[in-house]
Structure formats: C-alpha cells, structure tokens
Design goal:
By secondary structure, the chain is mostly helical. The protein is 84% helix and 0% strand. Helix 2 packs across helix 8, helix 4 runs parallel beside helix 7 and helix 10 packs antiparallel against helix 11.
Length: 428
C-alpha cells in the first residue's frame, strides 16, 4: 500500500471514472449495510429510551461532536490537499495530527468533566454528561481523513460498519422499554473507542509511523497556519447544520429535544451516504483542477445542481409517506416529529452542493470565501433560534436548518462563480 493517491497524475478522464465508481460503490455497499443495521438498532434504542432520555443523550453527542470540530482546527482538509497534490505522504502527517488532537482532546475532556461534576444535575443525567467527556476524546481521534487522503474510503466504511454492528447488536439484545438515561451513549462510547483504537494501531503499522510523537507537533502548527480559514468554515458549517439539537434542548426542553433528535438521527444516518460521496469526490476535485480547469469547474456545477434537484424529488416523496413511516419506526410517542423529516432531508441534499462549491474554492486556494459565506448564515440562524423556537417549537428548528442550508448554498454558488470569473480574467 502507498501513501499517495492512485492515478494522481491522470488527466481526469470521464466524470465517472472507473476508480471513482469503484470506490463509491464499494463505500456505499458497506455504508448501506452498516446504516441499515445501525438504524434498526438506534430506532429500537430510541423507542426504549423515550423522548426525554433521548433528548439528553442526543444533546450530549451533538455537543461533543461540535467541540471535537472546534479542536480539529481544519487539519484534515489541508492534510488531504497535501497528500492529493503529492506534497507529503500520509504517514508523515499522521503523527502530528494524532498527537495534537489527543493532547487537546484530553484537556477538553478533563475540563468538561470538571464542569459537569460541579453542576447540579441529577445522578443519571450527570453520569451521561460525564460519559460525554470520554466520547469527546474518542471523537477527537477521528481517522477518516487518513483513508480519504489515501483514497481508501471503502476500508474506512468497513471499520465504521464494525462499530455500528457492535452498538446495534447490544441495543437489540439487551435494551428494553424504560431504559435508563444515557444507556445508548455508553454503548456508543465503548463501540467507537474499541474501533478507533484498533484502526490507529493498524494504520500506524501499515504506514510505518508512531501515533504519539510530541516531536512532530511543530508540523501540526504549520498545517494549522494553512488550515485556520478552513477550520473556521468547518466549525461555522457544523454549528449551522447541527445547532438545532442543542438549541431545542436548552430553549424548549429535553422532551422537545428528544422529538427533534429522533428526526435528526434518521437524517444523519441518511446524510452519511451523501457525506461519503463528498469525501470520495474531494481528492478527485484536486486532480481535476490540476488536469483541466474548465472540466473541473463544469463538473462542480453539474454535481451541485444534480444533488439539489434530487433533493427536491426526495422532499416530495417524503411528504407523501412520512406520517406512516415515522409511526412505523418510532411509535406514537414520536409521531409529532414526523413533519420535520422532509425539511431536514432536503437541507442535506443542498449541503452536497455547498460541499462541491466549497471544495472547488479550496482547490483554487480561495479559502476566505467559504468563511465569508458561512459565518453570516450561522450567526443569523443562531440568533433566530431564540426568537422563533419559543413561539413555533420544533418546526422552527427544521425551518431554520433548511433556511440556513439554502442561504449557504446560494452564497457558495455565487462565490464559486465569482472566483471562476476572476481567475479567467486574470488568466486572460
């Protein structure tokens, strides 16, 4: 196995090259299997926990993943860019990123645990929030960028399938109605910790690097100096797309948070299919950009437009079947959240278009433009939660999420077209 992406110097060929199709189909096979099994397990766990308990654990998970993104500092995207362009090998960058994130993740987990210990939460909720500190540390050890950089996403999918199967089997075999608060988080924590540890051990042996290497921290600093704008965008986008769960929990209560969390979970499970398409495309965008600028720009527009069109079709179909589907999956206790699902799904299709435009801007080294597009959308939607949530409830969370995704898609498209025209003018 090599550190550099295969076919790196290829001219790009047709839009759907053999490798891209092979990687996408291979990844999707494992994602379909994993997500189907995971959905069955999590739906069963959700029914056993009930809206109140689901609201607590989903909020802890969302907050931990948000903080993880704060601590990621955008190093993933820069590492992928360097490896895809042949500027570095994955095995040279990995120790710096692992050591940097482990140190920050451990510090953040300790601070989280101290704050929770001093809080006045009830015993069950307090233990759930304390488990969230460990979940944050595990999230900080994300390995997906390593497989993305080396164009091995089908392997990453198989590892993620393993954690999904472990958790879902436990849910189905051992969960029962009236399950204690935080039970789902404890299972997810153990399953993910086992898989993350195994993956880093395996990859360190294959690529010949030592995970913990304080001497490499200077390299992480160099990456961050290039990545800080990408980090700002990633953080802003994650807040834009996921703050609804946390806002709902803290503004209108844990029961509403649980109802919204049931819809959000289905959307996130579905989003992984779209997300992995974007992950597979990202290194290809760099290759296309290097090979043929006109082809690169044309493909970005086609993929973004196609994803948005498919999203509108999916929205229409879901509107017809969502009431029946939701009751079948979650039961009557969660039926009032059914109407949220189509709006949230449409937003995720729009997010694919945004991702294409954003990676396109990064390929052209226009790192400031995605930030300028994202942060205003994030700040405005964040302020509107305090105004609209108390008045309209959960439906406002879905509307604001979709509205922010739509605004960001339009702004990103405009920025990409601006950058393309500017580059064309300078070339002339």
């Amino acid at each position: 196995m090599t550190d550099t992406p295969s076919n790196q110097g290829a001219s790009g060929g047709g839009l759907f090259q053999a490798k891209l199709f092979r990687d996408f189909s291979g990844t999707m096979l494992w994602q379909v299997l994993g997500k189907l099994f995971q959905v069955v397990g999590m739906v069963f766990a959700t029914r056993c926990l009930g809206p109140d308990n689901v609201g607590v654990s989903r909020t802890v998970i969302t907050l931990a993943m948000t903080l993880q993104l704060c601590l990621a500092f955008g190093l993933d995207a820069v590492a992928v860019r360097h490896v895809a362009k042949g500027l570095a090998k994955a095995g040279e960058i990995a120790p710096a990123i692992f050591t940097f994130r482990f140190a920050l993740g451990l510090l953040a987990a300790v601070l989280w645990a101290v704050v929770v210990s001093l809080s006045g939460l009830e015993s069950g909720e307090k233990w759930t929030w304390l488990a969230g500190a460990l979940f944050l540390l595990v999230c900080c050890m994300d390995y997906s960028w390593l497989f993305q950089a080396t164009e091995q996403m089908p392997r990453a999918s198989r590892f993620q399938l393993l954690s999904s199967v472990m958790a879902s089997v436990w849910f189905i075999l051992f969960f029962e109605k009236g399950q204690a608060v935080g039970s789902d988080l404890y299972v997810l924590l153990v399953a993910n910790a086992v898989v993350v540890s195994a993956v880093w051990w395996r990859m360190s042996r294959e690529l010949g690097f030592r995970c913990l290497s304080p001497s490499r921290l200077a390299s992480a600093g160099k990456l961050f100096r290039e990545a800080w704008l990408i980090w700002l965008f990633n953080l802003g986008y994650y807040l834009l797309a996921n703050m609804a769960q946390v806002m709902t929990y803290f503004i209108i209560g844990k029961q509403s948070g649980g109802l919204f969390g049931s819809a959000q979970y289905l959307v996130l499970a579905f989003q992984m299919f779209l997300h992995y398409f974007g992950i597979l495309i990202a290194p290809r965008l760099m290759v296309w950009h290097k090979a043929d600028l006109a082809m690169f720009r044309r493909r970005v527009l086609w993929i973004a437009g196609g994803a948005s069109a498919i999203g509108l079709v999916a929205f229409g179909v879901l509107r017809l079947v969502v009431d029946w589907l939701y009751s079948l999956l979650f039961g009557e206790a969660f039926a009032s959240a059914a109407g949220l699902l189509p709006w949230l799904v449409l937003g995720k299709f729009f997010a694919v278009g945004t991702a294409m435009f954003t990676w396109g801007l990064w390929a052209e080294h226009r790192d400031k433009l995605p930030v300028l597009c994202c942060l205003p959308c994030c700040l405005i939607s964040g302020a509107l939660y305090f105004v609209l949530l108390p008045k309209y409830g959960n439906v406002a969370s879905a509307w604001l999420t979709l509205g922010a995704e739509t605004a960001l898609l339009i702004a990103s498209a405009a920025a990409f077209l601006f950058a393309v025209r500017r580059s064309g003018t300078q070339a002339d």
